[in-house]
Amino acid sequence: MSYAYGSLARSSGDRGDQIQSTRDKYLAAVAALVPADILGLHAFLLLLTTNTDEAGTTTITDETLLGYGLFVLLGTSVVLFVFGHGLAKWTPRDFGLLLIPLVSFLAWAALLGTSALTPWVESIPRNMLLFGAAIAAVVVIAANAALTKPVAPPPD
Known about the structure:
This protein is mainly α.
């Protein structure tokens, strides 16, 4: 979805207007707020770095890989967005749009009991982490709405 969001960002910028159709608006919101490609890779990373016992307790078995995997996932999201957007015609708006899937993934990771974020935030109380994720989600939704408003076409 990071690739799709980058592609939508590029195509709306090429037209010089907002994402027009209801379908495109829905796709942009889902692609930005649910980075499914990165969440899928994250699920695979959890499979490699954790163990869940019969009682449902998850134990981290490779904290190093899990912790550094966070940065690999964030980097992968950036690369996919850039591939989707392309290297030409970047505007400040596009850099803002690039951040939305990253923050969305971090919010999703904060909501999970154990995630690639866990090694980095173990000392933060769970309630604070959940509240931070909720704030991040609201900011992402507002930023997505603001950044997908009409854009003036570039001068010829």
